[in-house]
Amino acid sequence: MPFLTDRIAQTQRAQKLAAAMNDENLLPAEAAPRAAPRFMPASRFTFDLTMIERELRGNIVGQDEMIASVMRIMTVICADIGDPRKPLASFLFAGPTGVGKTETVRVLARALHGDADAFCRVDMNTLAQEHYAAALTGAPPGYVGSKEGTTILDQDKIEGSHDRPGIVLFDELEKASDEVVLALLNVLDNGILTVASGERTYSFRNAIVFMTTNLGASELMERAGVTKPAGRGKRVQPQTGPELVLEKLLKRFPPEFVNRIDQIETFNAIGTDFLPAIVEVEIGKLNRRLLKHDCHLEVGPEVMRHLAELGYDKRFGARGLRRTIRKHLEFPLAEYLLSAAATGSSVNRRIITAVLEGQTLTFVEGDA
After folding, report:
1. What is the pTM of this model?
2. Residues 289, 217: one domain?
3. Which range marks the domain in which residue 16 is found?
4. How is the beta sheet containing 350-357 ordered, strand by strand?
5. What are phi and psi of 307, to 5 degrees?
6. Distance between CA atoms of 350 and 239, rounded to whole angstroms?
7. Which long-range contacts (CB under 8 A, 24 or more apart) does 6-15 make?
8. Listing from the earlier edge strand, what are the strands of the sheet with 207-213?
């Protein structure tokens, strides 16, 4: 019965929250005997920090400071010593487009849950108008759907499991309406979101909350020499990237909201030095997709340089490279695989090597 199923699920969530709060509410005298026999802190989280850092550094290029900051927070989470009345952590990623803000969340989801889509994503541009805020906070009492408390949130992905944190991403935060921002303020403050009707509660206390923003992106691009600097008559103050982003955030959001974010990270613009590494990451993703065909694609340095030169656009970061790889590598590779299948020749268990002939990529085969 749906009603009983919902009640059981609510009871289980309440028990989980109560267990998390149990040690927090102990007085020092009561906590000491329980802690004395433990020579090492016991944590309910079992994820591998070394593997997570390896995945982040292997897939996110040119953002070493951000990765180090994320890993410091992940260490605190893994030790399970954070405030149980708040989300496990809250991050705001700022920076130009195509620098890896959303990709960082995907990589972390894959490292923690084995699935790059194992997180609740909310595109805030869909909540730009006030009357769309109900999609996040639920319909008010008396309106259609208020009893069900239906929202666009995925409760299972937010709450995670006992040994794995949930992940939620609020993408392009600056586009959200003020009502949505106020709802998120409560989430960051106490880890709880109660829908407008009061019929349902979402717990973010076992979740890592990520937010992204493009505020200050144009100024950051100017600082990196990607776009033209401010015109005559405009005096550009010497600010660091984080200072510039913080100034933009305080102009858009109330100080009490910004003050509740644990970590604000400013991503670097992608420079030419990182292009070969980005191409290598994209080739690695393509090879993972080729596994189902028992094929492996070899791409040499010459081909990588060719793709990097074709696809790099300072304004678009890594996304321009992805489009170029799709157009100049994936399209001809797809034609090659289909033509091989049509002629009856098998490419299974073979290594396919991409070769540059003039300005065109061709493919040759060799036994694996």
Report:
1. 0.81
2. no
3. 1-40
4. 295-299, 350-357, 360-367
5. -65, -40
6. 53
7. 13/159, 13/203
8. 120-123, 166-171, 207-213, 89-94, 263-266
Cα distance between residue 26 and residue 269, in whole Å:
47
pLDDT of residue 224: 65
- Please report where in the chains the tokens 């399209």 appear, as a residue: 331
Residue 68 to residue 76: CA distance in whole angstroms: 13
Query: Do 198 and 344 lie in a common domain?
Result: no
Which runs of consecutive H residues, i.e. helices, occur in 291-342?
A: 301-311, 318-325, 331-342
| Cβ–Cβ under 8 Å, residues 183 and 136 | yes
User: How confident is the model over 21-39, as pLDDT tens digits?
Assistant: 555 444 444 544 444 444 4
Name 59's Cβ contacts closer than 8 Å, sequence gap at least 6: 103, 107, 281
pLDDT digits (tens, 9 = 90+) for 161-200: 999 999 999 999 999 988 899 889 999 999 999 887 777 8
Q: If pLDDT is split at 50, 70 and 90, which confidence band does 272 have? A: confident
Is the per-residue pLDDT at 149 higher than 70?
A: no
Distance CA 105, CA 89 (A): 13
Residue 18: predicted pLDDT: 56
Containing 185, the helix (H) or strand (E) segment is: helix 178-190
Whether the per-residue pLDDT at 63 is higher than 90: the answer is yes
Q: Which residues pair with 211 in a beta bridge?
A: 92, 170
Beta strands in 184-279 (DSSP E): 192-194, 201-203, 207-213, 263-266
| Confidence at residue 134, expressed as pLDDT on a 0 to 100 scale | 76
- Contact between 118 and 156 (Cβ < 8 Å): no
H or E element at residue 92: strand 89-94
- Residue 235 and residue 300 in one domain: no
Q: Is the pLDDT of residue 271 over 90?
A: no
Co-location of 292 and 308 in the same domain: yes
CA–CA separation, 162 vs 338, rounded Å? 46
